[in-house]
UniProtKB/TrEMBL annotation:
Bacillithiol biosynthesis BshC N-terminal Rossmann-like domain mapped to chain residues: 1-377
Signal peptide start-end: none
UniProtKB keywords: Ligase
Name under which the protein is recorded: Putative cysteine ligase BshC
Record-level Gene Ontology MF annotations: ligase activity
Tree of life domain: Bacteria
Similarity annotation: Belongs to the BshC family.
Xref: InterPro entries: Bacillithiol_biosynth_BshC, CC_BshC, Rossmann-like_BshC
Pfam families noted in UniProt: CC_BshC, Rossmann-like_BshC
EC top class, as a word: ligase
EC number from the UniProt entry: 6.-.-.-
Residue stretches making up the Bacillithiol biosynthesis BshC C-terminal coiled-coil domain: 379-536
Recorded name of the encoding gene: bshC
Length: 536
């Protein structure tokens, strides 16, 4: 395998503006991610004193796994106060889309880059967003179906979808196995298929909870990189969070005001508002087996899905005795993450980066330093067959990744069509426009104007149909090439977007080996803002 680096960002893209150190964008964060002095300062910053307790929590959370030597060393590094590079993701079915793996590879790559550059140990930590309760976001994945030459959705079906945090969801083992079977029925059988399937079934049999399965799948692939894992909904972690949870309840008004003020400042400067939330408390509370958002109004706290109310003293008592019932929302989750960890850098997707820009005011109010905020690596996999098809049809890789193949497919068909035929049809449409305009000048009643307008629409519709059907017939005459364009699209611009947002890692492991993502096989990466092309 080898890597290519190409730029697919638009000039005014948020991430590209950060890359170019546009002060309008870098000022949204506490540290300029392109400035080496930012890294030097953060690496030498004092620790928060929680690293000992935090390392114990993570070690306990990962105690059901067989830790690699690299992971054991990193737990020790964390305990001794070394800084972390952190990022997270929801626990998707079969690990979710490829960008879940790419986030983890980003953590590893950035950690190694910083360690080599500054001679400081850095610990990669992957934060599993197990407190989230939107099951529709994690209960499915997509697979490239060779039979249909298209993407197909595979979903875990259940009659009792969770309303509480996904971490608390106990799976239906038969339903989970059924979805796995459906997935493997759609992919091409290879020498890796049986091994992958057998391991998945083994994990399903051994574990009962949704995020535990996700944890093991991720651990299997990334343990040798030394990546540490923690579920944001872990009970031990929540106990450690008690002081900050209490502070968030005590000072909810100040936190909300800092957030709203920062949002207003950004929108006044022309930035799009990213975080949409109506709560003024920014915490969830588990009640009646449901994760409910807290609000404050008329002197009391209340829940979004029930009529239950609480005093501040009530909530503080719950924090003290049942902290696991609380969880953060999109506003307070980054704050809690930074309060817990001695963070060098947070690595996130494009939308996450924008979220963090809206939180600077809260960090300042709480006197918590922001990390260096950096985008995750963006990676596309290019196999030999698709590479040959790109060459065959003279299709630029960068353009396909960004825009798809429609323009090249259209050009291909037009090149095989009769220019005279197309020109004559288009000429007739122009004449029809002129005729309608002339006839309209000769009449005065509304009925006749409606008649002419309707007649014009009918004629133009017929000409349009004639042209479209003519070009469709050419497509049918070149069906093999049309299938090729569809194949290129499904691989490089599936469902109108990036490959890493749709494809699942298990398809890559199935096609190119179960160890394709391991340190011994995966090509060494350089941290970059560019699009990485991994040639398989």
């Amino acid at each position: 395998m080898e890597c290519l680096y190409i730029n697919v960002y638009n000039e005014n893209d948020f991430i590209d503006c950060l890359r170019r150190e546009d002060p309008r964008y870098t000022s949204l964060f506490q540290y300029n991610p392109m400035d080496k002095e930012s890294f030097k300062y953060k690496l030498n910053a004092p620790t928060n004193g929680r690293e000992g307790q935090l390392s114990n929590v993570i070690e306990t959370y990962m105690s059901d796994l067989s830790l690699s030597d690299a992971q054991s060393r990193n737990i020790a590094n964390l305990r001794s106060g070394h800084k972390v590079v952190i990022g997270g993701q929801q626990a998707g079915f079969l690990t979710g889309p490829l960008y879940t793996f790419h986030k983890i590879l980003s953590l590893v790559t950035l950690s190694e880059t910083v360690a080599d550059t500054y001679q400081e140990k850095v610990v990669p930590v992957f934060w599993i967003a197990g407190e989230d309760h939107d099951f529709d976001e994690v209960n499915h994945t997509f697979v490239y179906d060779n039979a249909s030459n298209d993407m197909s959705k595979v979903k875990y079906h259940t009659m009792d979808e969770p309303e509480s945090s996904v971490s608390n969801y106990q799976i239906d083992k038969e339903a989970f196995k059924s979805a796995v079977v459906q997935y493997f029925e759609k992919i091409e059988e290879t020498s890796s298929s049986k091994r992958l399937y057998t391991r998945l079934v083994e994990i399903i049999e051994q574990y009962n909870y949704w995020t535990d399965i996700f944890k093991v799948l991720v651990h299997d692939v990334f343990k040798d990189y030394g990546v540490l894992l923690i579920d944001a909904n872990d009970k031990g972690l929540r106990t450690l969070e008690k002081p900050m949870l209490k502070y968030m309840i005590e000072h909810y008004q100040d936190i909300d005001q800092a957030f709203r003020t920062t949002q207003s400042e950004l929108t006044s400067k022309g930035f799009e508002r990213m975080i949409q939330t109506e709560t003024n408390v920014h915490l969830f509370l588990s009640e009646d087996n449901s994760r409910q958002l807290l609000h404050y109004k008329d002197g009391q706290f209340y829940l979004s899905k029930s009529e239950k109310t609480f005093s501040k003293a009530d909530l503080l008592d719950i924090v003290e005795n049942e902290p696991e019932r609380f969880s953060n929302n999109v506003v307070t989750r980054p704050i809690m993450e930074e309060w817990l960890f001695n963070t060098l850098s947070f690595v996130g997707g494009p939308s996450e980066i924008k979220y963090w820009a809206e939180l600077k005011g809260i960090f300042e109010f709480l006197d918590i330093e922001m990390p260096i905020v950096l985008p995750r690596l963006r990676i596309t996999y290019l196999n030999e067959r698709i590479s040959k098809l790109l060459t065959q049809y003279d299709v630029p890789l960068e353009t396909v990744i960004r825009e798809g193949v429609d323009q090249f497919k259209t050009s291909f068909v037009r090149d095989r069509a009769s220019d005279t035929f197309i020109q004559e049809v288009e000429h007739m449409m122009t004449l029809q426009d002129k005729l309608t305009e002339q006839l309209s000048k000769e009449i005065s009643t509304e009925d006749n104007h409606n008649l002419i307008r309707k007649n014009h629409q009918i004629h133009q519709k017929q000409y349009d149909y004639l042209l479209r059907r003519y070009l469709l017939n050419i497509e049918r005459e070149n069906q093999i090439s049309m299938n090729h364009f569809k194949e290129i699209s499904s691989h490089l611009h599936p469902m109108g977007g990036l490959q890493e947002r749709i494809w699942n890692p298990y398809q890559i492991m199935n096609d190119f080996g179960t160890n394709v993502f391991s340190p011994s096989t995966y090509p060494p990466l350089s941290y970059t803002f560019d699009q990485i092309i991994v040639k398989l």
